[in-house]
């Protein structure tokens, strides 16, 4: 990914993170992804008093992509303030897998910038994906 593309993902995640609804945990997360057409889609976590009804930032970004016609994740950046790099939770790793391949970059960022880079395969090895589903069997 080019530096301008990384900067655009970071800026989108930072902007949406500021709109997160995290009154219970205080842990605001923003995520931004690029789709197959280079468009950026962002989402933030939305907590709910009836835990675990809330939504992760990555799920919000994926829903935004699908709502506008995107179908493939080229890269995703997750931004949160934490002493250690924050990666998608297990459920979101599987959500990402539905729309991404094993080499898809997943970037962990804090307010100071990108802290770590992974591939989906590194975070979700030997994963189950759409190609495993047999229709009409």
TrEMBL record:
Keywords per UniProt: Hydrolase, Metal-binding, Zinc
What Pfam families has UniProt attached to this entry? dCMP_cyt_deam_1
What protein family does this chain belong to?
Belongs to the cytidine and deoxycytidylate deaminase family.
The identity of this protein, by name, is Cytidine deaminase
Task: Describe the task this protein carries out.
Answer: This enzyme scavenges exogenous and endogenous cytidine and 2'-deoxycytidine for UMP synthesis.
Superkingdom of origin: Bacteria
Residue span, CMP/dCMP-type deaminase domain: 4-131
The EC number on file is 3.5.4.5
List the catalytic activities from the record. 2'-deoxycytidine + H2O + H(+) = 2'-deoxyuridine + NH4(+); cytidine + H2O + H(+) = uridine + NH4(+)
Q: Which cofactor does it need?
A: Zn(2+)
Under SUPFAM superfamilies, the record lists: Cytidine deaminase-like
Matching Gene3D superfamilies: Cytidine Deaminase, domain 2 (3.40.140.10)
The record's section on PANTHER family has: CYTIDINE DEAMINASE (PTHR11644:SF2)
Query: Which GO MF terms are attached to this record?
Result: cytidine deaminase activity
Q: Which InterPro entries match?
A: APOBEC/CMP_deaminase_Zn-bd, CMP_dCMP_dom, Cyt/Deoxycyt_deaminase, Cyt_deam_tetra, Cytidine_deaminase-like
């Amino acid at each position: 990914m080019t530096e301008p593309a990384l900067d655009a993902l970071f800026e989108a995640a930072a902007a949406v993170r500021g709109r997160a609804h995290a009154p219970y945990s205080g842990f605001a997360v923003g995520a931004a992804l690029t789709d197959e057409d280079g468009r950026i889609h962002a989402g933030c976590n939305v907590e709910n008093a009836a835990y675990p009804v809330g939504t992760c930032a990555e799920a919000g970004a994926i829903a935004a992509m699908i709502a506008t016609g995107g179908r493939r994740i080229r890269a995703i950046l997750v931004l949160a303030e934490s002493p250690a790099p924050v990666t998608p939770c297990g459920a979101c790793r599987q959500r990402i897998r539905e729309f991404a391949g094993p080499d898809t970059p997943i970037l962990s960022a804090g307010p100071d910038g990108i802290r770590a880079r992974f591939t989906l395969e590194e975070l979700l090895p030997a994963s189950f994906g759409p190609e495993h589903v047999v229709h009409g069997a």
